[in-house]
């Protein structure tokens, strides 16, 4: 009998919802604009309840969400979004109400941990023991997978809020930290700093050189802290295909030949684009759902 999974890639701009079967095929999907929690989650539930009529039941629900999140299953606020910059979402209970409404088990993790799991299983991080996925879109987030398992620890990685030196030409816009990677290099930051959306910036605009500078500082920190075999970049800003090459060049310059990489390995092999494209997030939610079914 075919198994069906309800999966959600919950982002700050939209919730991508899908029903995926056990052959990893998307049966049906929809995109719900991220508004206030009550309205957004009502539309999400409407989609899944409608599709449940067609599939009979869901084996599990997998949610890969923006955060920060409470991932401690013993906590009274398990499945809650905690202190997020996303207006109106702090303190939102996400996992449990959805799972109860759909009458199935639930697995929850950050959107970037989910994407990192998917890249480890099916994408650019296959057969690697330490994989980091970085998304650069509306915000910046990072997920870490070690030996196939997402890193949690005290809470979970918040790589977008890593403090970095920045660039003398710009100031950060994060409401929590003046010089974190997200506040300096996210799509929202570029919009505020340069007065226009990133997708409208010309390829020769100085913003892209500064963006590569910011992300190379982040890459430097990740390399010396985690020693990853892969740092995988995804997200909307990588529609600019030159960006990743510039990040590699600037990271090499920043490291100043300090790291002795294994023979035949260069930073071009380590810092790479996503292998799953726009599907890493939704497939991460699918992997989470399978893990608890």
Automatic annotation (TrEMBL):
<dbReference type="InterPro" id="IPR049874">
    <property type="entry name" value="ROK_cs"/>
</dbReference>
<keyword id="KW-0119">Carbohydrate metabolism</keyword>
<dbReference type="InterPro" id="IPR051804">
    <property type="entry name" value="Carb_Metab_Reg_Kinase/Isom"/>
</dbReference>
<keyword id="KW-0460">Magnesium</keyword>
<keyword id="KW-0862">Zinc</keyword>
<protein>
    <recommendedName>
        <fullName>fructokinase</fullName>
        <ecNumber>2.7.1.4</ecNumber>
    </recommendedName>
</protein>
<dbReference type="InterPro" id="IPR000600">
    <property type="entry name" value="ROK"/>
</dbReference>
<dbReference type="InterPro" id="IPR043129">
    <property type="entry name" value="ATPase_NBD"/>
</dbReference>
<keyword id="KW-0479">Metal-binding</keyword>
<dbReference type="Pfam" id="PF00480">
    <property type="entry name" value="ROK"/>
</dbReference>
């Amino acid at each position: 009998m075919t198994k069906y999974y309800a999966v959600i890639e919950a982002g700050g701009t939209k919730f991508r919802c899908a029903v995926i079967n056990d052959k990893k095929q998307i049966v049906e999907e929809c995109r719900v604009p991220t508004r206030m929690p009550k309205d957004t989650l009502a539309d999400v539930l409407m989609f899944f309840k409608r599709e449940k009529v067609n599939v009979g039941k869901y084996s599990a629900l997998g949610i890969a969400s923006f955060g920060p999140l409470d991932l401690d299953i013993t906590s009274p606020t398990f499945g809650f979004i905690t202190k997020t910059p996303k207006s109106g979402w702090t303190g939102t209970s996400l996992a449990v109400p959805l799972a109860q409404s759909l009458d199935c088990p639930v697995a929850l993790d950050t959107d970037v941990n989910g994407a990192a799991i998917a890249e480890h299983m099916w994408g650019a991080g296959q057969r690697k023991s330490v994989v980091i996925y970085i998304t650069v879109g509306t915000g910046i987030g990072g997920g870490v997978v070690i030996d196939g398992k997402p890193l949690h620890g005290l809470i979970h990685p918040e790589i977008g809020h890593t403090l970095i030196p920045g660039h003398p030409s710009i100031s950060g816009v994060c409401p929590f930290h003046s010089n974190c990677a997200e506040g300096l290099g996210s799509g929202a930051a570029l919009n505020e700093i340069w007065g226009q959306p990133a997708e409208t910036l010309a390829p020769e605009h100085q913003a892209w050189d500064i963006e590569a500078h910011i992300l190379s500082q982040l890459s430097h920190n990740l390399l010396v802290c985690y020693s990853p075999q892969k740092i995988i970049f995804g997200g909307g800003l990588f529609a600019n295909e030159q960006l990743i090459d510039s990040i590699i060049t600037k990271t090499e310059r920043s490291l100043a030949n300090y790291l002795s990489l294994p023979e035949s390995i260069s930073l071009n092999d380590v810092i790479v684009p996503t292998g799953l494209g726009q599907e890493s997030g939704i497939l991460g939610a699918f992997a989470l759902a399978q893990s608890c079914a």
